[in-house]
């Protein structure tokens, strides 16, 4: 960055290098988020099907007679929405921070 600032507009290639790094950062953060989302969905799908299979194969007197239906439903439907919302906010702030850094760098050196 200091080389770019010292040499002025003749060194525009350094600026494009920083733009490329910022773009690569955005793409990598997006890719990481998509990978995490797909992995979490596959894990939860496998976990849910195993739990459902075990509940459906459980002997009736030992599970369903002593466990209320609401408790069974609650075990399957615990909300993941707060965690998903947190991930969305984190991804949005990551992109926003990259844009702010790029804008401030361009304004300060341009």
TrEMBL record:
Which InterPro entries does this UniProt record tie to the protein? ABC1_TM_dom, ABC1_TM_sf, ABC_transporter_C-like
Alphabetically sorted, this entry's keywords are: ATP-binding, Membrane, Nucleotide-binding, Repeat, Transmembrane, Transmembrane helix, Transport
Main localization, broad class: membrane
Q: Does the keyword Iron-sulfur apply?
A: no
**Subcellular locations according to the entry:** Endomembrane system
Gene Ontology CC entries for this record: endomembrane system; membrane
**Gene3D superfamilies, per database record:** ABC transporter type 1, transmembrane domain (1.20.1560.10)
| Chain ranges of the ABC transmembrane type-1 domain | 12-78
Q: Does the keyword Ubl conjugation apply?
A: no
UniProt GO MF annotations? ABC-type transporter activity; ATP binding
Which parts of the chain span the membrane according to its record? 16-43
Topology class, membrane: Multi-pass membrane protein
Q: Which Pfam families match?
A: ABC_membrane
This protein's name:
ABC transmembrane type-1 domain-containing protein
Biological source species: Aphanomyces astaci
Taxonomy of origin reads: Eukaryota, Sar, Stramenopiles, Oomycota, Saprolegniomycetes
């Amino acid at each position: 960055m200091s080389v770019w600032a010292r040499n002025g507009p003749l060194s525009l290639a350094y600026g494009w290098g920083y733009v490329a790094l910022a773009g690569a950062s955005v793409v990598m953060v997006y890719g990481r988020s998509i990978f995490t989302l797909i992995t979490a969905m596959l894990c939860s799908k496998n976990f849910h099907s195993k739990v459902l299979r075990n509940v459906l194969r459980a002997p009736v007197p030992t599970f369903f007679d002593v466990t209320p239906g609401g408790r069974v439903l609650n075990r399957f439907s615990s909300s993941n929405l707060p965690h998903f919302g947190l991930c969305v906010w984190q991804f949005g702030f990551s992109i926003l921070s990259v844009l702010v850094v790029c804008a401030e760098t361009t304004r300060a050196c341009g």
